[in-house]
Amino acid sequence: MTGLLSAADLDPDMLAEMFRLSESFLEVSSRRIPKVPALRGRTVVSLFYEDSTRTRLSFETAAKRLSADVMTFSVGTSSVNKGESVRDTIETIEAMGIDAIVVRHGCAGVPAQVAQWTDAAVVNAGDGAHEHPTQALLDCFTLQQRFGSLDGLRIAIVGDIRHSRVARSDVAMMSALGASVTLVAPATLMPPSLEGWPVATSSSLDDVAGDVDVVYLLRMQTERMGQHLMPSMREYTARFGLTARRAARMNPDAVILHPGPMNRGVEISGEVAELPNALVVDQVRNGVAVRMAVLWWLLGSGTELVPSVDSAVPTADVEDDRG
After folding, report:
1. What is the pairing mode between strands 180-184 and 154-158?
2. Which residue stretches of the chain are H helix?
3. CA angle 115-121-127, nearest 5°?
4. DSSP assigned state of 264
5. Active site residues
6. Which of 254, 273, 248, 250 shows the shortest CA–CA distance to 262?
7. For 132, which of 58, 126, 207, 258 could close a Cys bridge (C-beta 3.0–4.6 Å)?
8. What angle in degrees, to the nearest 10, is found between the helix axes of 12-29 and 133-147?
9. Do the beta carbons of residue 169 and residue 7 sit within 8 Å?
10. How confident is the model at residue 222 (pLDDT cuts 50, 70, 90)?
11. Domains, in order of start, for the chain
């Protein structure tokens, strides 16, 4: 495989191996010097045409902890402002000698197109309202840690499904791992068609909050909305926000996920965000390990197969290497 463009690129066997790798790289991140020479001599480009905090920083941290060199592309100070096309940017960067490109773009399909223009491995870090496979991977890894398996889990994904690349990737990956997914949103925030989506739907969070193992909250993506799809944020919170009252109705073992950034007081109350069963910080922590696993998978083994954990992660005798 020359990249990771979609959640569908990872079948259940590959996901199991990716989780094993992520667990090992999580251990690396906990060391006094969280760095291994696994990708020394490799170069990873961070190519973000949209704003990002968690995804961009976790990919760059992941690459550095693997001892890869990192090129950071900033649209605001690049020749994009002079009219340079995505293709010309890719060809310019590739001429410098690179091994992987992590791409985020506001238009669906750009990472797949980039993969046609370069021999480097391409990772989709979010394309429009299309997909975000590494977010789905870290979400599923977080649930695997908590529950041991996703098989049989009941998951509610709540909020702006229509504009969410996270929802699309999560539905595909969670379903492939045996979870049952319910989309909870007003009709205006559902996709125009759910044909092919292996999901149930509901227009009431109150109807499902007490019956699921996971409540996954999405941000209202006003930057992607060409019109107001709810009368007001206050009404959205009243109907779909995870308030303390709704959280109290959840099963005792149920957990709360959010891809960030959180709009406290809109889709989640500040009080609920601080509950012990809100795993948002765990998601961020796991994101670095998962992205280390993805970069190793694409650049470290030299094959499509994920190597065994023991061979993939250098042992403690090289943990102090500063590459």
Report:
1. parallel
2. 12-29, 54-65, 86-95, 110-117, 133-147, 165-176, 205-208, 233-240, 244-248, 270-273, 280-299, 309-312
3. 55
4. B
5. 54-55, 82, 104, 132
6. 273
7. 126
8. 80
9. yes
10. low
11. 3-132+283-318 (3.40.50.1370), 133-281 (3.40.50.1370)
Q: Say which residues have a Cβ less than 8 Å from residue 122's Cβ, sequence separation at least 6.
A: 2, 3, 4, 5, 100, 101, 103, 111, 114, 115
Q: How many helices (H) and strands (E) does the chain have?
A: 12, 10
- Reported as type and span, the H/E element at residue 69 is strand 69-74
Query: 233 or 147: whose pLDDT is higher?
Result: 147
Q: What pTM does this model have?
A: 0.90
**Which residue carries 């463009």 as its tokens?**
5
Cβ neighbours of residue 285 under 8 Å, at least 6 residues apart? 26, 29
- 119 burial type by CB count under 10 A (0-12 exposed, 13-18 middle, 19+ buried): exposed
Task: Give the pLDDT confidence score for residue 54 in this predicted structure.
Answer: 92
